[in-house]
Amino acid sequence: MASGRSNPRQHNRSRRIANARRLRLEDRPCWICKAFGRPSRIDHSLPPGHPMSFEVDELVPVSRYWLGGYPSPEACADDYSNLAAAHRRCNQ
Fold it and tell me: Contact 57/85 with Cβ under 8 angstroms?
């Protein structure tokens, strides 16, 4: 049964794709591994779903958008300054 709410990450899909592409091109390390002093390089050749593959993570989660001063979950999900690269396993 649908809840009637759409996924805010899908609100502006083209912007989300562009932001993910930008993070990849900048070859950003996994911010979570880096924070814990672990090797943080992300292998972008790994397929989606692999535990060490690239994912986009929100620093302020869309479920708590108001904590970052965002007017909506969609604004939180679309703001490049709120996004970081992470390994899939770290982002779970």
Answer: yes
Residues 36, 9: Cα–Cα separation, whole Å = 27
Q: Please state, in angstroms and rounded to a whole number, the distance separating the CA atoms of residues 2 and 70.
A: 25
The 10s digit of each residue's pLDDT in 9-60 is: 777 788 889 999 999 999 999 999 999 999 999 999 999 999 999 999 999 9
Backbone angle region of 69, left / alpha / beta, with phi > 0 → left and psi within -120 to 50 → alpha: left
* Closest by CA position to 56, among listed 16, 28, 84: 84
User: Among candidates 28, 4, 5, which has minimal Cα distance to 77?
Assistant: 5
C-alpha dist (Å) from residue 82 to 11, 21, 22, 46, 88? 16, 15, 13, 24, 17
